[in-house]
Amino acid sequence: MTTYNERTGTTGLPELNAIVERVRASVESVIEGKPEAVRIALTVMLAEGHLLLEDVPGVGKTMLAKALAKSVDCSVRRIQFTPDLLPSDVTGTNVFDQQQLDFEFRPGAIFAQIVVGDEINRASPKTQSALLESMAERQVTIDGTTYELPSPFMVIATQNPVEMEGTYPLPEAQRDRFMARISIGYPSPEAELAMLDVHGGASPLDDLQPVAQAADILKLIELVRTVHVADSVRRYAVDLVTATRTSPELRLGASPRATLHLIRAARAAAALAGRDYVVPDDIQALAVPILAHRLLPTAEAQLSRRSAEQIVLEMVRRVPVPQGR
Questions:
Q1: Exposed (0-12), middle (13-18) or buried (19+): which is 66, by Cβ within 10 Å?
Q2: Interval 275-285 mean pLDDT
Q3: Cross-strand pairs, 54
Q4: pLDDT computed for residue 165 by the predictor
Q5: 171: pLDDT confidence band, cut at 50, 70 and 90?
Q6: Has residue 1 got a pLDDT over 50?
Q7: Nearest 10 degrees: CA dihedral of 32, 34, 38, 39?
Q8: Which pLDDT does position 203 carry in this prediction?
Q9: DSSP string covering 239-259, please?
Q10: What angle do CA 289, 292, 294 make, to 5 degrees?
Q11: b/e string for 121-158 if b means 16 or more Cβ within 10 A?
């Protein structure tokens, strides 16, 4: 697809890939040996989703979020989630102005194009819930007045596993608003050696410069929306999600929002692969990061040490794959 697109103002997938490659190279100059995590992060950004990074401390979750934020020239705010953080610290509040004799709205940290939420599951459930409206509807309502959030808008949140001390598990409604959840994992010995050279003296984030504009990302998002999804591929995505709702190993299956996120992410993945159409492989590759964090295994499945990721992979193997484009 190389013809000029009047609606998006771009020349199509070649321009998308050129911009994305610059962002990818910028992020990977900081994050050593994790190309798959970077790819998923870029996919979620182009699919207008939010990303949850879950792993043990010290593996680079916040570094990945910051590197992606600094690689795009847009407004960035960081929220350090702590047990004493208030909802108004996130969304904003009305403050009485003595001179004007009226209330003035002071925006919270959520009013940015990329919001980096560090250790989101260390905040209280009340504060976590302050993100629900903004993540789902890209707006904030304070005292009956609605304020639109800037565009593009993306929340990149990190969290430690629930086994860690001082964490509050994210509620199901909160997890469902994250398009994907990924783990960074420990680096390979070679990548860790390279990290010692890059990070040993100073943080590479200090030298990171934006390689794309917010307007570029908006154009790419518009382009991704035009990627074709055949009826058979749509049906395949619905069949996968439906399988989670009927599985005897799950007490909570994926929501209709999960189906929408799966299709949007598949469009972005197809565009990143240089295609203007989605294939079943795109759905399969994204099934675990898109679906697993929304599922709740039964007690029996947990006793059998069956994780949500394993259950999703089994469904991918079992659900019939459509043939043809």
A1: buried
A2: 94
A3: 159
A4: 67
A5: confident
A6: no
A7: 140
A8: 76
A9: HHHHHHHH-TTEEE---HHHH
A10: 115
A11: bbbbeebbebbebbbeeeebebeeeeeebeebbbbbbb
Between CA 47 and CA 262 the distance in angstroms is: 9
pLDDT class of 234 with cuts at 50, 70, 90: very high
Round to whole Å and give the CA distance between 53 and 119: 9
Contact between 116 and 65 (Cβ < 8 Å): yes
DSSP helix, strand, coil percent of the chain (3-state; round to 5): 50, 15, 35
| Rounded-to-integer distance, Cα 258 and Cα 18, Å | 29
| Separation of alpha carbons 122 and 231, rounded Å | 42
- Quick one: 37 exposed, middle or buried, by C-beta within 10 A (0-12, 13-18, 19+)? buried
Q: Do the Cβ atoms of 110 and 91 come closer than 8 Å?
A: yes
Q: Are 109 and 77 in contact (CB under 8 A)?
A: yes
User: Does pTM top 0.85 for this prediction?
Assistant: yes
Cα–Cα distance, 279 to 250 (Å, whole number)? 27
Q: What residues are paired with 92 via a beta bridge?
A: 107
Is 1.10.8.80 the CATH number for 228-325?
A: yes
Cβ contacts of residue 324 below 8 Å, gap of 6+? 230, 232
* Percent of the chain residues past pLDDT 90, beyond the cut: 59
pLDDT band at 43 (very low <50, low <70, confident <90, very high): very high
Q: How confident is the model at residue 5 (pLDDT cuts 50, 70, 90)?
A: very low
Whether 16 has a pLDDT exceeding 90, the answer reads: no
What SS3 class is residue 175? Answer: helix
Beta pairing partners, 94: 105
